[in-house]
Amino acid sequence: MADKTVKIPGPDHPITVEKNPDRVVVTVGDRVIADTRDALSLQEASYPAVQYIPREDVDLTQLERTEHQTYCPYKGDASYYSVLPAGADGENAVWTYEQPYDAVADIRDHVAFYPGKVSIEIIA
């Protein structure tokens, strides 16, 4: 297998990771999946900001790891989880970079949720 291309964020593709000062709550229906005041907001190029939530603030009993994986040349290999209470809609709704590249090392031990598969509320 060929080596994976690794890219470094820069002016043409900036990535910033900053602590979100607000509370972030992730729900499916009336079930809280995650609730934190320690989210990291990752802003990559012109994409919408993504909230990365510490694992300790996620109800991991509501998640099930899947075989799905993806690769980002800026962040590394992503592993996925399904959100069980969401049924089929929750399949691969959560991703995590367990060994992120140095440029985004702060997101290690955090997970992110696809907003189209769960409700993500940011409470100021």
Fold-level CATH name: Metal Binding Protein, Guanine Nucleotide Exchange Factor, Chain A
What is the total domain count?
Answer: 1
CATH homology-level superfamily: Domain of unknown function (DUF427)
The CATH C-level class name: Mainly Beta
| Spatial extent as radius of gyration | 14 Å
- Could you give the distance between the termini? 46 Å
DSSP helical segment count: 0
Secondary structure class reads: mainly beta
Domain DUF427: 24-115
Protein name: DUF427 domain-containing protein
InterPro entries: DUF427, DUF427_sf
Describe this structure in words.
InterPro entries: DUF427, DUF427_sf. This is DUF427 domain-containing protein. It comes from Kribbella soli. The protein is mainly β and 124 residues long. It has a single domain, classed as Domain of unknown function (DUF427) (Metal Binding Protein, Guanine Nucleotide Exchange Factor, Chain A, Beta Complex). The chain has no helices and 10 strands. The chain starts with 14 loop residues before the first strand and ends with a strand. The mean pLDDT is 97.
